[in-house]
Amino acid sequence: MIPASNSAPPILNPAVSPERTLHRLFLTLFLRGRSSRGLRKSSAPKSVGSKLALTVVLYALVGLVALTFQRQPIFVLALYLHAMTLVFLGMFVAASAGEILFNKEEADILLHRPIAPRTLLWAKIGVLVQVSLWLAGAFNLAGFFIGVRSPDGGWLFPLAHVISTAFEALFCTGFVVVTYQLCLRWFGREKLEGLMTTVQVIVALAAVLGGQLVPQLIARFGGNLRLGLDSWWIALLPPAWFAGFDDALAGSRAPTSWMLGGAALFLTIVVLWLAFGRLAKDYESGLQSLGESVSRPKKAGGRRWVAAMVQAPPLKWWLRDSVSRAAFLLTAAYLFRDRDVKLRVYPGLAPVLVMPLIFLLQSRRGGVHDGGFSVAFSGAYLGLIPLLGLSLLQYSQQWQATDLFRAAPMVGPIALCHGARRAVLCILTLPMLSLFALVAWLVPGDATRLLLLLPGIIALPVFSLIPSMGGKCVPFSLPTEEAKSAGRGLTMIGVMIASFALAGLTAWSWSGGWFWWLVLVETIVGVIIYAMIRASLASVRWPPME
Amino acid sequence: MISLQNLTKRFGTQVAVDALSFEIPAGQIVGFLGPNGAGKSTTLKMLTGMLEPSAGTATVCGFDLQRETMEVKRHVGFVPESGAVFESLTGLEYLEMVAALYALPQDAARARIQQFTAFFDLSFATLTDKLLGAYSKGMRRKVVITAALLHNPAVVFFDEPLDGLDANAAVGFKTLIQTLAREGKTIVYSSHILDVVERVCDRVIIIDKGKLLLDGRPDELVATRGSGTLERLFTDITGGTELERRAEDFAKTFRP
Fold first, then answer.
1. For residue A293, which of B9, B134, B208 has the smallest C-alpha distance?
2. Distance from CA of B247 to the nearest CA of A (A)
3. Contact between chains at A3 and B14 (C-beta distance less than 8 A)
4. How many CB atoms are closer than 10 A to CB A376?
5. Exposure winner among A8, A168, A325, B193, fewest CB in 10 A?
6. A331, A423 Cβ separation under 8 angstroms
């Protein structure tokens, strides 16, 4: 029977305020993940503190790269630190904001509770800012001490940098929130999801690109990175504003630094005012419309070309069985439509395209004299596209739906793996290689060096089979939480080392005059390994379910 | 207790709920029925303050749905059809979070949770140690029902509450809501399991395409229409003609 309310014990502890409750809730959800599926189900929840500590330590370790900026002027050091902080925070906030700000499942849990939408917004933003600050603090830890020993630095630098980093975290979070709100206001919630996925992917790509370009920029300007007639555009870069703040308070104290620092403060305040004041109402209405289930039919024509391609040669010949054809279509659909998959795959692949392009541009402008290592490394990197793509496509929020594959009359998952692999080759690898070839063709320089790309490209088919070994590469069959596992990171490090080795061997063969022998041997060995892996895959059966 | 006047919800050009009007007094259990897409869930979401009506008015517990939304939310409990929970919280963390949102003191909330745990035969150790993602569907549903009733609401909206509950829990739940109604609470019960609705509810409201089709006591409606059962009455008035014959014809297509 329903418990009578008067049987409750006397009140000893007052209620926790909704604000604190929500803040704690969103922080816990953020740290543990939205779904427990990636955790060991029967165990008690993992410690939030230890997970957080691990992340913070990891960021602090990455921040040690700042040690290479010892004895640099404050502006240069701060520009590097703020640029990299913005890269990390931009990627983190862009990737997290959609799920945190507008979560559909959350609507059924929270929207009928007595909570004002503004309280919800504050709690969510509070968590985003708090986590951003932890990460930024950890990443900048080494930089604090290096700034103290800078030629124009001193003990004031850590204080100035803490303040500017806090402003940067607020600016970054506020900017993403404002972007959401403006999209809501201009395009409505119906289009928000698709639009924001595109925006998030672009932001993440820009962050990756920025992360690669900033060190190049600093190398170009050396220690004389200052605002001048020839470098006025630096004032347009947000990291330069915050670096100016540091330099104004604890560095050269030049007038331009004061101007940049002032811009940092002013623009952060404007962004925050827009996010939490001017446009807060849009968030409220957006939240209300979360529960609206508009069954408006989608335009059918949009993705029909993929289905048509599969039915026509040469894909029809390549996808001979119905299972690999279905897996191809499924993979294509997720690559084009699924927000979560797009946010993981495209930013994840961005460095694989950006790095070779940067190496190519450097090497063809004669900027690097490395015996062809840069081009060879680009080739080895490009060869990794299918391997990386397939690894990223194993994860999905709808992983439980793949039980369907096991229920179907298939002795093993290999036909599914092949379908997914071919989709990755057609939809991701081919366009990326074509884009790279186009850039390589357009950029003037010694075209013969492009032959150094060959060993990497020859290795591509073998690399593309590696994820399928043991039947592990069933598309979308693993919970997204497992994408963050340490084992996956180690695998990627191993693959990177292999790329380095291949690039080194290629450069050596080029300078030693036995490049074509290498290509011949690699082709023969590649064909043998490819055939062996294919043969071994044919006998793979379903791995046991957990 | 609940009063709707021409309550309407439009999604673009699509009318999901079309000028719905009815009143539900305190202490009544009302079966809120309709075929898929009839507008039931949309109506419930409006009455719980989750969706803003496009037109019309409604009051719940005397509070205006649009002007006093927070008061309405304080006085209602809702078990959504999705049964959504935060899977990475333990059952206890989830329920304590819900209790805090209704400003229930921590000790009172904990005691209340223990009472519900005992009622639903849930192990308190499970509630404290296991994440909700690891719960069975039935256990999760029990937690969602507990979360809806924790703050002792005057009005409770149930959307397919028996989904996932085992037979024993379902029997206990049906008795629970009947007793709650006798204690003066208003229950709105939306379900497709019509024999349960027929046994439990004092009154049924049937809607289709957002419009009110029938409103009355189940036994009287069945008798007046000569349908025999509520299920038959429902299929008669919601356009499900010749369902058995169509099903038989379709099943024959599976012959080898």
1. B9
2. 25
3. no
4. 32
5. B193
6. yes
Q: Which residue of A has its CA nearest to B87?
A: A35
Q: Which residue of A has its CA nearest to B83?
A: A108
ipTM above 0.85, yes or no: no
Which A residues, 354 through 413, put their C-beta within 8 Å of a C-beta on chain B? none
Neighbour-count burial of A33, counting CB atoms closer than 10 A to its CB (0-12 exposed, 13-18 middle, 19+ buried): buried
Give the span between the Cα atoms of B24 and B233, in whole angstroms.
22
Kindly report, residue by residue over A363-411, the tens digit of the pLDDT.
665 555 566 777 888 888 888 889 889 988 988 878 878 888 888 888 8
Q: Return the structure tokens found at A124.
A: 């969510």
The CA distance from A480 to A151, in Å, is 46
At residue A535's C-alpha, the angle toward residues A530 and A539, to 5°, is 140
Residue of B nearest to A3 (CA): B115
Cβ distance A36 to B100 less than 8 Å, yes or no, reads no
Chain segment A84-141, per-residue pLDDT in tens: 888 778 777 776 776 677 777 788 888 889 988 778 888 888 888 888 888 888 888 8
Q: Do A32 and B99 touch (CB under 8 A)?
A: no
Of the candidates A297, A305, A367, A362, the one whose C-alpha atom is nearest the C-alpha of residue A336 is A305
Residues 290-329 of A with CB under 8 A from B: 291-296
pLDDT digits 0-9 by tens, A408-454: 888 888 889 999 999 999 999 999 888 888 888 887 777 777 888 89
